[in-house]
Amino acid sequence: MYDGEVAEGLKRYQEFLIQSAIEEKGAAAVLYEEEKEAVEAKEESQKISVPDVLEGIAAKGTKEAEIWKCGLFNRQGRLVEYAEPGEEVKLISYVKFQHKVLHPIYGFTIRDRLGNVVMEMNSEMMHQSLPKGEEDAVYQLKFQIPYLNQGKYTISVAVANGYQEDHIQLCWLDDVWVFKIADREFDLQGFLYINQGEIGITETEG
Known about the structure:
Order of helices and strands: HEEEEEEEEE
Helix content: 10-25%
Number of strands: 9
Distance between the termini: 94 Å
Strand content: 35-45%
Shape: extended
């Protein structure tokens, strides 16, 4: 009976060691991928020139982070001043952290010329977990320009710490970037327009 208890205990201990090794390996793999993505993003951003944030743009938040470079780029790596609806773009921001941030969130807001919010998006809503914020970080957020009506639009960027439902704004910059949607054939009201549609005609009797 005693030998059986010892054997069972050794078996459970071995299973515990194996499971711990698997979990540790998995966690290390996740950490490696996050660090790899952060390095790749920084290397890619260094290939293009990201402009400094203009003086006079006052930052909101706790100031525990600073967004000091920001720009909107197209697929060719050129700064976007005129955008086409549906065009793939990349919002790049350089961030300096005052201390380590455990769960950073990077996001942006697009507003029209009257200040109305057209859309918002952030890494948390995209289910993209960012690496812990260190002293310096480069964030890139790829998205497609919505099918916006013609006119001027601004982009505000922000870095927070926490989760979507509970977070603290570290740095928020309003109207850090301006771009324009070229004039279209028809000047319609509203924020968006339908890219594709079809009208059918049904004949009725009588």
